[in-house]
Write a structure and sequence with these properties.
This protein has 450 residues and is an all-alpha fold. It is built from 18 helices and no strands. It is 77% helix and 0% strand.
């Protein structure tokens, strides 16, 4: 079995593969939501120093993702090179995640900084070792256009569950008096779940990871630099960058909006859970719609609705309107379900078209670049949000926020993400791989196979 059977992937393979994203998402969102807080409030680092630790981790993420992609594409393993990375990377991934939360609470700032930096670099490396090959499995498991979208849909649901669990670590550990002990206990349990989830995914794809009949070991390394300049590649990367800034600003603005517009900081967590659950629940509906409409145009329509909803929620919400806000979060999750599904389903098609046109197959490199621009977008989102709030006179130390500061929060939540989502959608309209183009490519690739 070479992974491209016309009978399609069995349900057990789709579900087993999707389970892997549960562990990857738990680790990613737990670190994103809570690592900075643990550095300041548990390990005792000054906020500015803790921010440097997080920045170093993000910068290394941007470097090591394409490196891991290149290495994985050039690896040869009897059972499948991506499966091998999952099998042997699961334990380092789990251990490095747990290690993040076991920093000393009584060491000097210098020692804590060095240990925290080493821990985040180790985690970022182990994360990339499993996450890059894992995401790159989709294009080598099946060449069916709709089945790929369905596989990504399964993965999107487990990713949403991982997002909720990863973000929920904050609620779990802040209910006791001994924050450090609670955090360490939960981190070990979550680390086990992360490792086991990846190990479940590895055997589930056994026999479905296709043989790579394109030898890329002789491709000069300088070619990888030129990849990003290809029209379809650059279109996807620019789309991903702008989209990551949009979602990054939105996520970071939710706590400010809940605290200073609605008057209840706790609504941020509830809103995120409602948003994520609704988005995941609507993924099957969007999957069916992709059978009838081209993905870029469908995403433009959904993002247009999301932009309108953000504008309404951002400027119609007031103190005490929590029910309206939570209902709006559910509607926004429904509108953003297309963004949860469609973008990751585009990269696998690019892999095959590039193989057809150039006789070079770089699935892990493409997904490595995809993850790199995502990290860059999230970094830019933080800078953009900070500058925007500063321009409107936001003062986090003020006992009561000024009218200008509140307006800045409304703009950050209700205007900026929506505009950027629309810009990203317009960029994606330049993407030249339609269903018809891909099906022609698939037919020619299959007819050329021995």
């Amino acid at each position: 079995m070479d992974g491209f059977s016309r009978d399609g992937l069995p349900l057990s393979t789709k579900v087993g593969y999707a389970v892997g994203d549960l562990g990857i998402s738990i680790a990613y969102f737990a670190v994103g939501f809570f690592f900075l807080f643990s550095l300041t409030d548990v390990a005792g680092l000054p906020a500015a120093v803790a921010g440097i630790v997080v920045l170093i981790g993000k910068l290394w993420d941007g470097v090591n993702d394409p490196i891991i992609g290149v290495l994985n594409d050039r690896t040869r393993a009897a059972g499948g090179r991506k499966r091998a990375y999952l099998r042997y990377g699961a334990l380092p991934f789990a251990l490095s995640f747990a290690l993040l939360w076991w920093l000393p609470t009584d060491a000097s700032d210098t020692i804590t900084f060095l240990l925290a930096t080493g821990a985040i670099l180790l985690f970022a490396t182990a994360y990339s070792i499993v996450a890059v090959p894992y995401n790159a499995l989709v294009p080598v498991m099946t060449r069916d256009y709709d089945e790929r979208t369905q596989v990504v849909g399964f993965k999107a649901v487990t990713s949403a569950l991982g997002t909720i669990l990863g973000g929920g670590i904050a609620l779990l550990v802040t209910r006791g008096d001994d924050l450090a002990s609670a955090l360490r206990t939960v981190s070990v349990a979550f680390g086990v779940v992360c490792g086991v989830a990846v190990l479940v995914a590895a055997p589930s794809v056994t026999g479905w990871e296709s043989r790579n009949d394109v030898d890329i070991t002789r491709v000069p390394l300088r070619r990888y630099v030129a990849l990003a300049a290809e029209r379809n590649v650059s279109t996807l990367l620019w789309f991903k960058l702008v989209g990551a800034v949009a979602t990054g600003v939105l996520s970071a603005a939710i706590p400010y909006f809940a605290a200073h517009v609605l008057g209840s900081a706790g609504l941020a967590t509830i809103s995120l859970a409602i948003y994520t659950i609704t988005a995941a629940a609507l993924v099957p509906v969007v999957t069916r719609l992709t059978h009838r409409f081209e993905k870029p145009r469908l995403l433009l329509a959904f993002n247009g609705v999301a932009a309108a909803l953000l504008l309404v929620i951002g400027f119609m919400s007031t103190t005490g309107s929590s029910l309206i806000f939570l209902a709006g979060s559910a509607l926004l999750g429904a509108a953003m379900s297309a963004y949860l599904l469609i973008p990751p389903s585009l990269v696998p098609d690019l892999v095959d078209v590039y193989q057809h046109d150039r006789n070079e197959r770089h699935e892990s490199v493409f997904f490595g670049l995809w993850m790199t621009v995502h990290q860059l977008g999230l970094g830019l989102a933080g800078v953009m949000l900070g500058v925007l709030l500063q321009l409107f006179g936001y003062d986090g130390t003020a006992p009561e926020q000024s009218a200008g500061g509140v307006l800045g929060v409304r703009v950050a939540f209700g205007v900026v993400p929506g505009v950027l989502l629309l810009v990203a959608s317009v960029i994606l309209l330049r993407y030249g791989i339609t269903r018809a183009r891909y099906e022609q490519t698939r037919t020619e690739l299959e007819s050329a196979r021995p």
